[in-house]
């Protein structure tokens, strides 16, 4: 296992460092001893041993007192490392004290580079702390933003003469990236703008590939969440280019997964299936990515089967079941946008013959729609579906109570905590959960009421403590998550390789059959793409006569029609449209 090998390497390295430390101590080489303590601490931290790292940093701090050539930055370095370790351990007060000491020493030393770094790390601390809070903290968000902006000002105003443009570009890129994460966490529309600024900075400095890949990945996921599939395809294509260029399977696996998700959004299930299979075949070191790729390949096979079943479905009940099943499976694979379409189709089928579908089933479909809309941050739509659910839900006080609570949470997103509707909905949820005999749900509702009000009345606090004492907080009151047992039943050996024509796998034992639509270059273009770019109407017509698909996409998501339009080849555009391109 990679993890076991990594731990063994770490232990071996630490033993060698300990030997070097003993030698340095015997010979009174305290500067070497100080550096070795930092080196061992960094090594332990990289492998997740933050407590062990803290012990090394404490030793380094003590050595600072006997250094023959001490500087203010010696202790500053220790404070920074301590702060970063303590942040990982969620000991935020101690982390903040160390990072503020780091900043103070950096200012004393007159080092703008270290001041910039200290402020950037403080910003990260406030952001990480915000993420662990049960409720969003405007105070922490404001502190994080201010720290990032101060750090950015230092980069722009004080480092032009001491650092080269590439180094400053990376610094600015990381700050814009962190601000993007911050804005996205609080659902601020400035997130995409910040990530785009970061992207520009990382592109300027080609050596910062890791930063560039992270930025492309986050931006792609945001576009997927927002339903901007074409943008997501383009960004995933750029990520795949980097993966191919650097021959890094981790990057290629992630890029193929993102491409598959985007292709599903545009309705190209065959190409999505191929992308997921490419992801699965990468020798990635990230187990979770490989497992996700396997799930997505199984999902693609299941979707193909269900599409065939839909054509033969004898009645509305079966069609509703199949669409709901597809929606649940897509949610299970974190593909919410395509799932929404399946749930919408299920509701459409159910409403076409309401006499055949029980009201409970329709209510459950509305819940699936509402929860999935909430996942993609479409809160107004979620509210609409929760209210439609209430209109058809009968004789289920526990389900109605839970929906009232969810409505209160959606209203906070759309109208704010001050809305009178919020408290009314929570109070109704409390009453209904008590009537249904659901103490865990009642506790959740009461705790939400306290958060909304900002304080707890004696009567409410007494009831909360009573429910906790009875163990109400040990049970889960939420609806069971949407799962798909169907995917676990699919055997990967049953999935055909016939559609795999990517040259990336040409070194496998069994070479794939050459196809008309085979990619001819590293951009994923086909002969039809190339003919459209070159403006060769004759070649386009010849390829279409031979049966070339008009819907095939390159790695950036472009179809031949896009290329013909981009290059102003209008006759080719007409030809492709007549051949079925859209």
TrEMBL record:
Q: Biological process GO annotation list?
A: double-strand break repair via homologous recombination; exocytosis; replication fork processing
Q: Which GO terms describe its cellular component?
A: host cell presynaptic membrane; nuclear replication fork; other organism cell membrane
Q: Does the record carry Repeat as a key word?
A: yes
User: What ranges does the record list as Basic and acidic residues composition bias?
Assistant: 507-521
Q: Domain of life of the organism in this record? A: Eukaryota
Q: Does the keyword section mention Flavoprotein?
A: no
Quote the SMART domains the UniProt record gives. Answer: ANK, TPR
Keywords (alphabetical) are: ANK repeat, Exocytosis, Leucine-rich repeat, Membrane, Neurotoxin, Nucleus, Presynaptic neurotoxin, Repeat, Target cell membrane, Target membrane, Toxin
Mark out the compositionally biased spans (Acidic residues).
Answer: 491-505
Show me the ANK repeat boundaries.
Answer: 523-555, 556-582
Q: Where is this region: Disordered?
A: 468-521
Q: Where in the cell is it found?
A: Nucleus; Target cell membrane
The record's annotation in Pfam families points to: Ank_2, TPR_12, TPR_7
The protein's name: Tonsoku-like protein
Species whose genome carries this gene = Amblyomma americanum
